[in-house]
């Protein structure tokens, strides 16, 4: 089944690219054909997604009828715990064994883990080759596939090794969400809520009204949530590709969240779940600063709960553990922790001006619950 497709542009001068959003797009090889310039392609996916969607994409590529076209695929193990340099090396091994040259195009078919690793491999292979994002989770469709952040985890810090490398295009097939486990859908909703909280108060209200339809995957609602999220992200990335300023706002909730992911072992808390809890913590601190009202905080907590997301971090994690991990965050400069906090619903700032005492109170509150 196909339906009209929507297109957004990430406006980055000569590195601009389209985001295609629609139902049945994994089958529309013509879209890929427009963005493949050489005669070699490698689809990178994982053992969960391969049985669901790999053949569809390979069939489409074969149908492109490019003379001398070489199409390879690589199926990696599934999971955040495999998002490290050794797995990226498996991509390099396969590219070299199959003699892929500088004109090759890598296609990332999967969630954020596959997208981040494939993008990083594309950034480094022969000093940079093209890649295409085909995101299949809600989280990757609304966030990780757009904007060119690629990379892997290090045992001491989440996403600490990486590169900025923009894709040639992003192909979002909303149909692929039908096979996504509900817990993963909730994790993706966390990033949609993030856009509402940092920059789009109307989106936040719309989410409050329509969260059930989204959890039921009602097609028009899902498409609208993806479109509005990608539009917000594309605008912010176009204004600040390398995160010198406004792009940092996209990390709302992430400093707390990354601490949870690193401490709990990659993959035990989903990225979106950790971000959900992190946003609740950032909201709590924003309230303690007198920026948000109690009602604002309640609304945020209600929406997170209605989305199936946790409100606080793991019970066994104490303030001191959060602080240790938060010191390794990429936003730390000269040893000072910087956080994204909310001045109002729909308006965020990057600040180090929150007072250690208040941060301590927020972290203690989370550990006490
Ligand atoms: P994920 O890639 O681990 O996917 C979640 C699970 O769903 C996996 O088991 C996957 O195999 C499975 N899956 C994927 N698509 C499916 C489908 N259609 N049907 C059934 N199962 C499917 O996790 P994610 O939430 O997509 O991404 C999280 C990662 O993204 C984290 O590593 C995070 O750091 C990263 N991220 C990166 C950025 C960025 O800007 N680059 C932004 C946000 C998050
Ligand atoms: N997810 C944060 C960013 O892309 O900047």
What does this structure look like?
The protein has 369 residues and is α/β, with parallel strands linked by helices. It folds into 2 domains: 6-179, Rossmann fold (3-Layer(aba) Sandwich); 182-368, Dehydroquinate synthase-like - alpha domain (Dehydroquinate synthase-like, alpha domain, Up-down Bundle). Helices cover 45% and strands 18% of the residues. The chain has helices spanning 29-33, 50-62, 85-97, 112-124, 138-144, 182-198, 201-215, 219-239, 254-264, 271-288, 294-306, 319-326, 356-368; strands spanning 6-10, 17-22, 40-46, 70-76, 105-110, 130-135, 149-154, 157-164, 170-173, 339-344, 347-351. The strands form 4 sheets. A 4-stranded parallel beta sheet has the order 4-3-5-6, sandwiched between helices. Strand 1 (6-10) and strand 2 form a beta hairpin. Helix 5 packs parallel to helix 6, helix 6 packs parallel to helix 10 (271-288) and helix 10 packs antiparallel against helix 11 (294-306). The protein starts with 5 loop residues before the first strand and ends with a helix. Bound molecules: nicotinamide-adenine-dinucleotide and glycine. Residues 46, 48-49, 52, 78, 80, 83, 110-114, 116, 136-137, 139-140, 143-144, 147, 149, 159, 176, 179-180, 184, 187, 271-272 line the site of nicotinamide-adenine-dinucleotide.
């Amino acid at each position: 089944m196909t339906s009209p497709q929507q297109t957004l542009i990430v406006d980055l001068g000569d590195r601009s690219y389209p985001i295609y959003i629609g139902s049945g797009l994994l089958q529309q090889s013509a879209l890929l054909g427009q963005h493949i310039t050489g005669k070699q392609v490698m689809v990178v996916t994982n053992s969960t997604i391969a049985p669901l969607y790999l053949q569809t994409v390979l069939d489409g590529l074969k149908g492109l009828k490019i003379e001398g076209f070489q199409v390879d695929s690589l199926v990696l193990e599934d999971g955040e715990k495999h998002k490290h340099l050794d797995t990226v090396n498996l991509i390099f091994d396969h590219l070299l064994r199959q003699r892929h040259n500088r004109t090759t195009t890598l296609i990332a078919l999967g969630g954020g883990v596959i997208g981040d690793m494939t993008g990083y491999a594309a950034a480094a292979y022969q000093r940079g080759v093209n890649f295409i994002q085909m995101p299949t989770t809600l989280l990757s469709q609304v966030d990780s596939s757009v904007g060119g952040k690629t990379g892997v985890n290090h045992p001491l810090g989440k996403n600490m090794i990486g590169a900025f490398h923009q894709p040639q295009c992003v192909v979002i097939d909303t149909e692929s969400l039908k096979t996504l486990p509900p817990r993963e859908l909730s994790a993706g909703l966390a990033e949609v809520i993030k856009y509402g909280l940092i920059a789009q108060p109307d989106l936040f209200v719309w989410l409050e009204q329509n969260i059930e339809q989204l959890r039921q995957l009602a097609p028009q609602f899902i498409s609208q949530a993806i479109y509005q999220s990608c539009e917000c992200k594309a605008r912010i990335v176009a204004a600040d590709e390398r995160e010198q300023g406004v792009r940092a706002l996209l990390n709302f909730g992430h400093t707390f969240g990354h601490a949870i992911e690193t401490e709990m072992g990659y993959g035990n808390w989903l990225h979106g779940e950790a971000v959900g809890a992190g946003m609740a913590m950032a909201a709590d601190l924003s309230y303690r600063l007198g920026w948000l009202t109690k009602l604002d905080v309640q609304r945020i907590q209600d929406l997170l709960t209605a989305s199936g997301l946790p409100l606080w971090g793991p019970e066994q994690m104490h303030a001191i553990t959060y602080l240790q991990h938060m010191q390794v965050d990429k936003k730390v400069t000269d040893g000072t922790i910087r956080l994204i906090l909310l001045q109002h619903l729909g308006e965020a700032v990057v600040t180090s001006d929150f007072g250690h005492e208040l941060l301590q109170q927020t972290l203690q509150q989370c550990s006490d619950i």
